[in-house]
Design brief:
- The N and C termini lie far apart (53 Å).
- The chain contains 4 helices and no strands.
- It has one domain.
- It is 90% helix and 0% strand.
- The protein is mostly helical and 128 residues long.
Length: 128
């Protein structure tokens, strides 16, 4: 799906949301979730294509697959967390959005711990 189609889906979802919010406010969140899910699925295909390209570039450069994999997963955590938090903000649930953002930050930091340990060992090795 190209960017124009994704933008059109976003605009259409926003218009349907505005109409539904006036008629049946209790279903407005469902419209947002449905439209967002369609867009997220469309973008997921592009993410996997980019991941494969990064993987082939990594092999050519001779980089460790584990480090690049950690970075790609951290990027995925950031995207999903921002997506979920934005939906919470749109539904006037800022406390839940803040909790989702905090969980994403903790998840990314926890995921990156092996890389941080490797950097620390390298620095300590250079200092000796």
């Amino acid at each position: 799906m190209d960017v124009a189609k994704i933008a059109a889906a976003g605009i259409l979802t926003a218009m349907i949301y505005a109409l539904v919010r006036q008629i049946k406010p209790e279903f407005a969140s469902v419209v947002i979730l449905g439209g967002s899910a369609v867009i997220l699925i469309a973008v997921a295909d592009r993410f996997f294509e980019a991941s494969e390209t990064v993987d082939s570039m990594m092999r050519l450069a001779g980089l460790e697959k584990e480090n690049v994999s950690i970075l790609m997963r951290a990027l995925g955590i950031c995207v999903i967390t921002q997506f979920a938090a934005d939906i919470c903000y749109d539904n006037s649930s800022s406390a839940i959005a803040a909790a989702v953002e905090l969980a994403g930050r903790v998840g990314a930091i926890t995921l990156a711990l092996p890389m941080q340990q490797a950097v620390a060992k390298t620095v300590l090795g250079l200092m000796e």
